Amino acid sequence: MAGEPQADCLFCKIVAGDVPATVVRESETTVAFRDINPQAPTHVLVIPKVHHPDAASLAAAEPAIAGDVLREAGEVAAEEKLESYRIVFNTGSGAGQTVFHAHAHVLGGRGLQWPPG
Questions:
Q1: Tens digits of per-residue pLDDT, 64-75?
Q2: 18: number of CA atoms within 13 Å, CB side?
């Protein structure tokens, strides 16, 4: 069921403390941790503690928590002293999503070209 932890979800396991991560921030509703395969000098993932497969389903079901994810992404950028940064939500395998638990990538510390990819 959406919102409930999923036994086979890597990010649910991180939230539960069953899988280690380099946590940089934690709030009542979110966890932010360093990506294990960084694509920029700063690459932090911000995830909701509740399970939803992607950003759109999170926003539809729990808009306040979707807002928390964005707010925390901004806090991560501020703590990392990023003047410019990108927040990315990949949705679906064709867009590069590999963990089907909503998450924001906070990327910065180098020039980021447009369009991406």
A1: 999 999 999 999
A2: 10
Active-site annotation holder among 43, 51, 101, 103: 103
Report yes or no on 77 lying in a domain: yes
Residue range(s) defining the domain that contains residue 70: 10-90
Beta strand 85-88 with 23-26 is unpaired
**Mean pLDDT confidence for 7-33:** 97
Q: How many domains, in total, are found in the chain?
A: 1
Q: Is the pLDDT of residue 16 over 70?
A: yes
The answer, yes or no, to whether residue 97 has pLDDT greater than 80, is yes
* CATH number assigned to the domain comprising residue 71: 3.30.428.10
Residue 101 designated active-site = no
